[in-house]
Specification:
Layout (H helix, E strand, L loop, with lengths): L1 H19 L21 E6 L6 H16 L4 E6 L3 H13 L6 E4 L3 H8 L6 H7 L8 H7 L16 E6 H7 L10 H10 L3 E4 L6 H15 L2 H6 L9 H15 L12 H9 L3 E7 L3 H4 L6 H4 L2 E4 L21 E4 L6 H19 L20 H8 L18 H16 L4 H19 L2
Parallel strand pairs: 1-2, 1-3, 5-6
Antiparallel strand pairs: 3-8, 4-6, 4-7
InterPro entries: Bact_solute-bd_prot1 (IPR050490), SBP (IPR006059)
Protein name: Extracellular solute-binding protein
Family: Belongs to the bacterial solute-binding protein 1 family.
Length: 444
């Protein structure tokens, strides 16, 4: 009983502190008993994560552990893995002021509007109040920040994205690992001439292709390009924009992606690579268990390696700076933030990193060591060690940066551009006009 009262007092102080410093809280006195105990209840988390993934499984376990000392507590997980459907649900609930206690979101223009409207707790202040802020990797937190540096989402992952390749297939085609992004179209042509699919890609989900258009501007102009582009302060007609538009068209002409890629999904792309049919595959460390363990077909296992995002002549970003996301973040609803939510978050966030690292994944914090599975190949450790050598700049995925309408149009136009259905000039005109129409709605 004394421990519960003490926890309630600490949680209440946390909630009050965040309210005082602008974090936002509307603590309901009915949730705390006259003796200071927290009154357990159900709280909800609106999720956009794989239902059987490590994040959800661990948080379920931690919620059950918390409930043992707080009978009546329950974490209700509202899962919508399909991202477009999730975004629609999030926007609908936000408009109706019915967001649950916790909800997932990227650092999108829409999320920034919610923060400005006072609907989200300041995550930096929250993590500092809970005394866990300094445990987090700076890169994991930076991925969640808005353009002004403010932090309103809590990361549960830390990933590195590589271009995985089959050494035997490159050797068969007589090509080497590309030293520059500009080498890739010619490399694709050589692989095609050797009867090899150059790059396997998940075209159905659209975000994998959108990764590619972000690469050239990141090397040419740095992370500021997309920050300006989404506000209409930069254009695809600018030099950095034209370089990536023309490069994407070249990837299409060189038939870099598998035939019918736009209709093929995540598992299709991965199977093409792991079966030795495709030479390259751009994916993150969340797939280490499929790419760097004995699950991989022995016929290709020893031929698999990876390289990081190539630079270009005159790159303003370094070779150790590339896409290093911390996944979709968790926001805390300021309207429903109270001592119970605070106390549960403190409990969960202190225990989560060790549980997550035990699954063989990189934790968003630096206070735990990732457990390498017994069936891992040497490539597993090599991938993890890459996290020890990262620069300060990140290549942000554009689907987390652009407004929803612009992002949807970009994904559609990209497929048309790569398939050769539209010209670079048509793509440029369409996208610059789309941004000009939509940016003012989010950036005033």
């Amino acid at each position: 009983m004394k421990n519960l009262i003490r926890a309630a007092a600490v949680a209440a102080a946390t909630a009050l502190a965040l309210t005082a410093c602008g974090g936002g809280s509307s603590t309901d006195p009915s949730n705390v008993s006259p003796t200071g105990e927290i009154k357990p209840r159900e709280i909800s988390w609106l999720l956009s994560r794989p239902a059987d993934g490590a994040v959800i499984n661990i948080m379920k376990k931690l919620a059950d552990d918390y409930a043992k000392d707080h009978p009546g507590f329950e974490l209700n997980l509202i899962t919508t893995p399909d991202r477009p459907s999730y975004i629609q649900k999030l926007e609908t609930l936000a408009a109706a002021n019915k967001l649950p206690e916790l909800f997932d979101t990227d650092a999108t223009p829409f999320a920034q509007q919610l923060a400005k409207q006072g609907k989200m707790v300041d995550a930096e202040k929250l993590l500092k109040t809970l005394d866990v802020y300094d445990d987090y990797r700076p890169g994991a937190l930076d991925y969640q920040r808005f353009d002004d540096g403010s932090l309103y989402m809590i990361p549960f992952q830390f990933e590195l994205e590589f271009i995985w390749y089959n050494k035997a297939l490159l050797e068969k085609a007589g090509v080497a690992v590309p030293k520059s992004l500009d080498d890739i179209p010619a490399m694709c042509t050589a692989l095609r001439d050797a009867g090899i699919t150059p790059i396997a890609i998940d075209g159905q989900d659209q975000w994998p292709l959108e990764r590619y258009i972000a690469y050239q501007p990141f090397r040419e102009a740095g992370p500021d390009f997309v920050t300006k582009l989404k506000k209409g302060e930069a254009k695809f007609s600018d030099p950095a924009g034209q370089k990536t538009v023309n490069w994407m068209a070249e990837l299409g002409k060189a038939k870099c992606f598998q035939e019918g890629f736009s209709a093929q999904g995540y598992s299709d792309a991965q199977n093409q690579f792991t079966s030795g049919q495709a030479a390259m595959y751009n994916i993150g460390t969340w797939e280490l268990s499929s790419l760097a363990t004995d699950k991989l077909d022995p016929a290709v296992r020893d031929d698999i390696d990876f390289f990081t995002l190539p630079t270009t002549a005159g790159s303003v970003t370094a070779a150790n700076e590339f896409v290093s996301p911390s996944g979709i973040g968790m926001a805390v609803n300021s309207k429903t933030y109270d001592p119970l939510v605070s106390d549960f978050l403190k409990f969960a966030l202190e225990k989560y990193p060790a549980e997550y690292a035990a699954t063989g994944a990189l934790s968003p914090t630096t206070d735990v060591e990732t457990a390498v599975p017994a069936n891992a190949t040497p490539l597993y450790r090599k991938a993890l060690d890459q996290a020890k050598d990262l620069g300060s700049k990140q290549a942000m995925p554009w689907d987390t940066q652009l407004d929803p309408t612009t992002n949807g149009r970009l994904q559609q136009e990209l497929v048309l551009l790569v398939q050769g259905n539209i010209t670079p000039e048509q793509f440029t005109s369409t996208m610059d006009n789309t941004i000009a129409q939509n940016a003012p709605k989010f950036f005033k």
